[in-house]
Amino acid sequence: MDALFHLRDMIASLDGPLVDDLCARARLPRNESLYALNGTPAPKLEALAGPYAESTSLPGRVLLLRPFYVRVLLAGLCAPGGGDAERNACIAADTACLNSLARRLALSIHVATRKREALPDALQAALRSGAPARVEAAITNLAVEADVIARVEKRARKNDAPAETLHRLSALYADWIIPLSRKIQVHGLLAQP
Questions:
Q1: CATH fold of 2-191, please?
Q2: pLDDT at res. 86
Q3: Which of 143, 147, 169, 181 would staple 108 via disulfide (CB 3.0–4.6 Å)?
Q4: Distance CA 13, CA 128 (A)
């Protein structure tokens, strides 16, 4: 399990820049005129996890994350509005956020590999069942997730994030980023022979 703890440290080191980038983006308006998704809805986490886990490049992962980022994360993080004056700043901040998010989630694939190597009894039984919900329950560690949220909040405070941004970041991690990471792990675990 030492390798798993090492990966968690690596994820923590990637959460710092991601939170910094999200805090910077939260200071800007959403500026909806920048995003032409042509009605593309935000993908369900289960549908995003598989293609994300199977993608092998950062640009490919960023492309997969873009609708999710725009429809879910950006909508939950930033106030609507904006115009041409903020256009370049918004684009630069969005690029930084997407790259940081893609790097952070990419480690989820490695976490799945380490969990498979450790193969505790509960995970063995869940994998034998082939049920994604059972596998997700077997890999969920609420104490670790609470630590992640606390770390995110601490980093956001370091960025002088207002209380509303702090609340939004915590909610985005709890409701979207951590669950997506788990689903990527589940996909990886079930895809391995």
A1: Chorismate Mutase, subunit A (1.10.590)
A2: 86
A3: 181
A4: 33
